Each structure stands twice: as structure tokens, then as C-alpha cells.
């Protein structure tokens, strides 16, 4: 299977290199005028320079404002028989398909930044032209960089964006605040950072075990009248933390909807 990436920056190259390492694709070509070399991809400065041959997968990883322009410029020979996957946030399948002039099926993917370390989440949505075989193939491709999940309505990608797309920043902010609290309690910044980061890693590792239950995991650490119970009681006072997290997720969801509408 041959893949063409249009845009091979941090996100595009993380996905492409993972596919190559897992031998999910036989060859990978990438169009990116800002890159001079790659360890395993064949790089081209423009679409015009790409050899005229069909590709099985074409992944578009450019800024959203350029996605439709790039697809409109795709030569027929490159996209004949291909599936186009767009990771451009907020650009709808309808707009992508129109730009392509309905020449091939389109998949929207919403990966998050942990795909850079193979621990990402990717929300997927496809138009009606995508068959089961191709759907299974794309699931395997994105499972190579973490969790891959399909939604049955395109608007649910806005919810995916609010939870996992933006979510890593929420956890980074909490870790930042936890580290700062450690410094306030007398720890060195280096130690506070290390403790906050390793604690986040350990908690996430437990959460991703088969059958893990968030409430049970929290309860297991929270001895009655102990130190953790005191901290949790502060978070849970008037359900302040829960209300704040929901409000933040709703704000991200609303902004994702606005971006899809070109606002």
C-alpha cells in the first residue's frame, strides 16, 4: 500500500513514521516545501513534483485554511482509487468532497498530540462512499498511534475535539498547577515537575488497563479521613471541579462548531 502525505510536519510525520515502522504502508511520499530530508519518506517540494502514479491513501495534514485548495489541485492520477484522510480541524466532509469534485471517498480524522509518542486518540468519520474494508484498514492505521474510534455523525467530531483533541492541554495545565503547588510546599521546581509528570503517567497507565473504572481507582487511593480525602473534598466542594471541567469542555465544543461553520 502506498501513501501520500500533503504536509509532513509534527503531526503528519508522527503518523507517517508510525505507519512505516509498523509496516502498514509499503512506501510513503510526502509533499512539504519546508523539509529537506526524511529518514524514510520520499519528500517533494510540491504536488507537481510527485511522480504520476495512483496512491491508496492520501493524508492531508496542512493548515485548515489550505485543505480545500490542496485537494482541488490534486491531479486525477494521484487520487484515482485513493481514500483521502483529512486531519484539518473544522473542515467538513462536504467541503472536502466538493474540493475533490467527488473523485474519491473522504475521511475526517481528529488526532491529538500524544500520537507523537504513539499514545494518541483519533476520532474518525467517513462519508457514505467508504466501504467496510477501507474502514477497517483506516482503523488499523490510526490504531498504530493510539486509540482509534469512529463516530456515526460528523458533528460528534466537535465533541471528540472538546474531550481528546483539546484534552491533553487540560492535563498539562493540571500538572502545571500541581507542580506549582509542590513548589509552594517547599519542593524544588525540578522535583515538583518530576513528581507531577510521573504521577500523571502512572495514573493514566492505571486508567488504561482493561476494565479500569475511574471511580474505583479514585476510591482505592482515598482512605477515609486521610490526606487524599482532604484534597478530594476540596475539589468536590459544591462540585466545583466537575462544573468547571464541563464548562471548559462546552466552550471547546462550541468553538469547534464555530470553526466548522467558518466563524
Structural summary, described in words:
This protein has 263 residues and is α/β, with parallel strands linked by helices. The protein contains eleven helices and eight strands. It has helices at 10-21, 64-72, 76-79, 93-100, 132-143, 156-165, 167-184, 189-207, 214-221, 227-236, 240-260; strands at 2-6, 27-31, 42-44, 57-60, 83-86, 106-111, 120-126, 146-150. It has an eight-stranded mixed β-sheet, with helices on both faces. Strand 1 (2-6), helix 1 (10-21) and strand 2 form a beta-alpha-beta unit. The chain starts with a strand and ends with a helix. NADP(+) binds at residues 6-11, 61-64. Its main location: cytoplasm. This is Pyrroline-5-carboxylate reductase.
What's this entry about, in short?
InterPro entries: 6-PGluconate_DH-like_C_sf, NAD(P)-bd_dom_sf, P5C_Rdtase_cat_N, P5CR-like_CS, P5CR_dimer, Pyrroline-COOH_reductase. The chain is of the alpha/beta class. It contains eleven helices and eight strands.
Mean pLDDT: 93
The span between the termini is 38 Å
- Helix percent band: 40-55%
In CATH, the homologous superfamily of the largest domain goes by the name NAD(P)-binding Rossmann-like Domain
Strand content: 5-15%
Q: The CATH topology of the largest domain, please?
A: Rossmann fold
Shape: elongated
CATH C-level class of the largest domain: Alpha Beta
Structural domain count: 2
- Helix and strand content put the structural class at alpha/beta
Largest sheet: 8 strands, mixed
What value does the Rg take, in angstroms?
21 Å
Give the SSE string: EHEEEHHEHEEHEHHHHHH
Q: How many H/I helical runs?
A: 11
Question: Judging by the overall fold, what is the CATH architecture of the largest domain?
Answer: 3-Layer(aba) Sandwich
- Uncertain spans: none
Placed side by side, the strands forming the largest sheet appear as 3-2-1-4-5-6-7-8
Q: Count every beta strand, where a strand is a DSSP E run of 2 or more residues.
A: 8
GO molecular function: pyrroline-5-carboxylate reductase activity
Subcellular location: Cytoplasm
Pathway: Amino-acid biosynthesis; L-proline biosynthesis; L-proline from L-glutamate 5-semialdehyde: step 1/1
GO cellular component, one term: cytoplasm
